[in-house]
Amino acid sequence: MQGLMQDWPLVLHTVIDHAARQYGTREIVTRSIEGPIHRTNYNEVRARSMRVAQALARDGVKLGDRVATLAWNTWRHLEAWYGITGIGAIYHTVNPRLFPEQIAWIVNHAQDRVLMTDLTFLPLVEAIADKLPTVERFIVLTDGAHMPQTKLKNAIAYEDWIAAVDGDFKWASFDENTAAGLCYTSGTTGDPKGVLYSHRSNVLHGLQASMVNTLAVSAEDVVLPIVPMFHANAWSLAFTVPMNGGKFVMPGAKLDGESVYELLEGEKVTFSAAVPTVWLMLMQHMQKTGAKLHHLKRVAIGGSACPRAMIDFFENTCGVTVYHAWGMTEMSPIGTVGTLKPAVASLKGDELLDLKAKQGYAPYGVEMKITDDEGVELPWDGKKFGRLKVKGPCIVRRYFRRENEEILDETGFFDTGDVATIDPNGYMQITDRAKDVIKSGGEWISSIDLENLAVGHPDVAEAAVIGVAHPKWDERPLLVIVAKDGKETTREDVLKFMDGKIAKWWMPDDVQFVREIPHTATGKINKLKLRETFRDYKLPT
Ligand code: AMP
What we know:
The protein has helices at residues 13-23, 42-58, 75-85, 100-110, 122-128, 158-163, 199-210, 237-244, 257-266, 276-289, 308-317, 349-357, 447-454, 491-498, 527-533, and strands at 27-31, 37-41, 66-70, 90-93, 114-117, 137-140, 156-157, 179-184, 194-198, 222-225, 247-250, 271-274, 298-301, 321-327, 334-337, 367-371, 386-391, 414-422, 428-433, 438-440, 443-445, 460-470, 474-483, 510-513. With 541 residues, it is α/β, with parallel strands linked by helices. The strands form five sheets. It has an eight-stranded mixed sheet. It has a seven-stranded mixed sheet with strand order 7-6-5-3-4-8-9, with helices on both faces. A four-stranded antiparallel sheet has the order 16-17-18-19. The mean pLDDT is 95. Adenosine monophosphate binds next to strand 14, strand 18 and strand 19.
């Protein structure tokens, strides 16, 4: 027997409709690419996304067509997402930090028909435009007054483009499983892989992210998503915040410590989300200037492991609650969030920091398990580490245009490529990427644990650990360090700091100092590149 309730498809325009209806005058503030702070609200953003939908339809864009966006977090980018999906077309977020050849590859693979770009990326787009045969029109996310001369095909300023339609339009109707968004994984090896979100998965994920045990976004919140919309859906905030009526603060192109601090204070931000590298810049700014935070209550930190010292700074120096979170593009992206269950709520001091250094537990909608290499499930004892596998309605089933490749195991779980422990309370801790774990004498050493420990040293700004070939042990850890501005430290000093805090055989065999550690386009330490840099390096015997 079937239930007798209404069939109300979970499609994205219901989100912006709801935001306009219930929170219409709630503000959306952006540090615009042109410079000044721009203010709008949900009513206006909905009306303008309707114009985007109408203009796309007029240009012949149809259900299932891909529209690329190379853009920072701004109100226009938000309008573009809702407009594109409102006719059943697909927003394809392109990470502008990728190499131009990679961008061209991705746009071609996605067969994007329209490309929207911020002014910032116009030179980049112009340089590769003749390699993008599928793109019929380029839209520059600015107004007529700021529109530069360009030879791009059918180029038009966004404001002129949406001004040419009257806004009298209805959202298209389609099934909730219709594709809505496309995002390629950064893929340090092999071709990038496209993850194709549906309306249903985005709406469900937006709800999942809203839950009190997840990010707990409410109408009272002022939310600054520093994590870019081109990085795994801005961790769902583009859906979660309008669903819940939070005030939105969009950082545009400026993600440095001073600019972020200015927005946090100036707009009275209560919740923000970013990768550790961004928070590091804020921390350095605050430590240099003595600035304090007066409104911020919670921060989500993820994308790579959040160092313990950073958790300590936010929680104990600033009085800000840290949600350490883990996820991936393939998971829409949220997999776990480190909010507190009753079993751990009374932890204090170091014990609390130890718990917060874990990546948290899975919300409703994510099933998780760890297995050995043979697929045998491992216990949740907080000690055994194994391959982390996941299942849920917002998790990838196939990659785009690789539909004949099976990527789930026989039980329907997706192998994340991460290695983790899960403790008896369900808190998961990433010990490594499967390919970064250091195999010493048949045992595994977690590079992330060593990195976290090393950045706890007062003079260390950033640390990375890679495995280096060793004649007896196969591999041994090499610690690579960037010292804080104006600070000097030595190999001996760092090793002494680490000694006694980890098992003896985990201690790095050597420490090398560098000016900079390479990062990938999504802000993670680029270990592939680091290994190349140290290819000829020999451990001291
Ligand atoms: P991406 O798809 O670019 O978001 O990358 C996903 C990968 O980032 C995951 O599979 C993890 O390896 C890594 N990652 C994300 N969040 C964390 C975290 N909090 N701690 C450690 N690694 C993380």
